[in-house]
Amino acid sequence: MSLGRSAGKTDPGRKRLRNEDAYVCEPPLFAVADGMGGAQAGELASGLAAAALREARDADASEERVVELLREANRRVYARASEDAAASGMGTTVTAALVEGDRVVFGHVGDSRAYLIRDGELSQVTDDHSLVAELVRSGRLSPEEAGSHPQRSVITRALGTDAEVDIDTFSIEAKPGDLFLLCSDGLSSMVDDRTILELAEQHRDDLDAAARAMLGAANRGGGEDNITVVLFEMTADGADADTVEAAVPRPDAAAPGEDDEADTLSELDKVPVVAAPAEAGSEAESLTAEAEQEPEEETAAEETRVVEEAPAAEEAAAEEAPVGPTAGFFHKLLALLVIAGLSALIVFLVLWGLAR
Ligand SMILES: [Mn+2]
Prior knowledge:
With 356 residues, the chain is an alpha+beta fold. It has one domain (2-258): Phosphatase 2c, domain 1 (4-Layer Sandwich). 38% of the residues lie in helices and 22% in strands. The protein has eleven helices and 13 strands. A six-stranded mixed sheet has the order 7-6-10-11-1-12. Strands 2-3-4-5-9 form a five-stranded antiparallel sheet, covered by helices on one side. A hairpin with a 2-residue loop joins strand 4 and strand 5. The structure holds manganese (II) ion (MN). Manganese (II) ion binds next to helix 5.
């Protein structure tokens, strides 16, 4: 058995002005990185991590080697973040796969995902290092609640935010016909598993088309985040392999993402990339904020940030505790006291008038 065809694509989505995702599609190495940080630091972090991985793609596929690769990427992002004030605190997710023979070795940090599509079924093979995933794992949140949780972008582990990083690593024994998908949360938070599977099967003979269809579906679902998809298949020996790779220009380059969407989106889908100002919505505001180079003003809930793993769950639980009712109670009490005071004054004045 050997590595068959592969394809990689990225798109800024409909709401973000920049694309902070990066990917590697250089067989036998594949990776997706979703950066975070103010100004252009998110792009820098994911770009540095992807570059570090690319340099070492002739590596042998062992879990130790993949951990070493990710540690080296971590060192580079962290070093840059430490020496450059504008990049301080930046970080990135990384989900990487290295193939050798019929072994696929994974290294993973953050909430990007790897899926395996085998025998008509899709299964997520990575655990999300995110706040909501931890709450789901500990039974404090249902998977349904997690999908719409306001803090679903909060990740508990990232590459580059600390000198050391805790990396998940594991291997999968591949079978002919296996299709692997690496993606950023811009796909998994916009498109459900069933649809991802349908698109993969519908375009099984053309991975480039499958990747394009997935970007299209994420954009139709709202395109709230940058979307990145990398696909690779395992084939019986003797099948031909070719790589289709298309880097969509970053949004500051000409015609962002147009060619990618043109043939997957219908007329109905041609919603403007920059939405009209929404009433209560903050996406439009966040776009303005980004345009003014003040990314810290972007909606906190939507922007990916990283928190410490253990206190994170406590923090979320604390933030869920209602604070509103207490404040409301004091307002009502104050109003009652004022009314009581005025009533007493009126009674007193009436009695005083009668007494005269
Ligand atoms: Mn993302």
